Amino acid sequence: MTWMLNLYQTYEDNLDIVGKKEVKKNGKEFTLLPISHTTQTAHIEVMITGDGDFHSAFLLDKSSGNTLIPSSENSASRAGSVIAPYPLHDKLPYVAGDFVAYGGKIKKEEPFSYYIAQLKEWSESPYATDTVKSIYQYLSKRRLIKDLVEEKIIWLDQKGQLFSKLDKATEEYIGEKPQIFSTVTGGQESAFIRFSIYSPDAELPKPWNDLELYNSFISYYKDLLGKEELCYVTGEMLPSTEKHANKIRNAGDKAKLISANDSSGFTYRGRFLKPTDAVNISYEVSQKAHNALKWLINKQAKIIDQRVFLVWGSEVPDLMEDTWALITGESTQEEEESKGGSYTFEHSAREVSKAISGYESDLSLNENVQIMVLDSATTGRMAVLYYRSINKSTYLDNLKEWHLTCTWQHRYRKNNNGEVISFFGAPSLKDIAFAAYGSKVNEKVVKGMMERMLPCIIDRRIIPEDVIRSAFYRASNPVSMEPWEWEKTLSICCSLFNKKEEGYSVALDKTNTNRDYLFGRLLAIADVLERRALEGDNRATNARRFMSSFAQHPERTWLTIQKALQPYQARLGEKVWYYNKLIDEVGSMINPGDFNNKPLSGKYLLGFYSQRHDILQKNDKQAVTEEILEEKGEI
Questions:
Q1: Does this model's pTM top 0.70?
Q2: Concatenated DSSP letters for 413-432?
């Protein structure tokens, strides 16, 4: 239960922000939930006076409906026809005492009687606040439906009864389509009601933002918990629970990490007499651990096809991001872009080291970093697919090693102005998946590959060969992609091969006599030569059209490419001598015995990229000038 203990400790370390709202980049709010609380999407807000009278009501839109509410063990896990009311806010059949009187349909017993009895106990306890007492006083009058109808929030049909489905006759009777049917999924009885207190003298805190109300229910509910038993997580004697939280990934998530309700099946029969014989977790620990997990997922997790990739610890960088995200961050991105947004490998290495050093300077270096992967195979069960607790120093060292070795030049990021920037470093795991399998690949493939890549960073394991091979085949087939996608795939593939081979640089190595590297250089020269001759025509060059064939049969395909180059060589005029000399120079470096049709390895892509990069750094005039000076022996 190490992962649960670490989540519990995370909650304890962040008690000062419990119940306080935080906002994501997309504007959505999230909270580190207090224990015995959960969240629900409310559809209607009812305001009540301090004397327990109805004041007003209004419909809520999706952006303002998220509500933090008290929750018991039973209500948090209720399903089907089980009657288990939430302690304060709930659906219409639970909170409306006149629901049945207005034709509301119930399956068995009346939910309101359970709800109001539960609320009465809380309101009469020594922990009750004025808010709880006022809400109980109003709801005990059993007139919520009547008040909502008068406010034109809830609507009745011709017979004065609630209706679930809006038919043509009812709509004609009302004269318009009620707004509630645009707010609630399903009938009016599905509406979730939240309550607040109105005061003409002061602005009172909303119950879902009221720390005093949180503590009121926590203290009240604590007295209702069962007997104390040994908690397997903390080793202390605490009230235990067999019902654990759901809604882990989002408000609609029903999957649970811990569940043992199959007493009639074979989950634990034959091995244990009761679920707690297998594992016994206290209510408080379960609540805090699950709430910490929900908070961390909202705060910083990556979610691919409902699979959660989560890294947490004391100020640690995300291992799934690329080098650009590591060395810039939101606070310094504009400053880095103002420097030109283009770095040498040496500059990038310094920046990576500086960034990692910043995390290493933290006094909590001896703490551990937690890496967790979660997913569910069914709607009711969730599993921990991967979990590691690793020393922070080791984590940072391995992360630094990854960003310094799986590196190449990339041009697929954009700044805030929409301009393409260049950076040296490692790509993100998600981008590696897209490079290997394409941007339209099923997310199930992406999440599986990302999980397989985690040990390559955390434990410095080698990159799976099939991932490199898939990226290699895609990078060798540029005509199957848009130019921008191919350029991205090419640079990421070069990163992967550079990690595998180690020691290669974007800077052209003119002394490298490796056969595959030299063939890649030849292909790059042919590509740039034809592109310069086309002068703005964006059609694919022969070098790119034959690239896939070239990788499999370099000798035969090079003869085809070289023949196709002749008209473009003629079109370039005197500029062609620079490219012709490069072709002769590189071709002469290939051993005659190696000039054959043996398939090329990924090194040819490294040679292709480096040679093309070297040529494109020079304009034609500079290239010709260098050619003349070189012939005169002046350079």
A1: yes
A2: EE-TTS-EEEEEEPPPHHHH
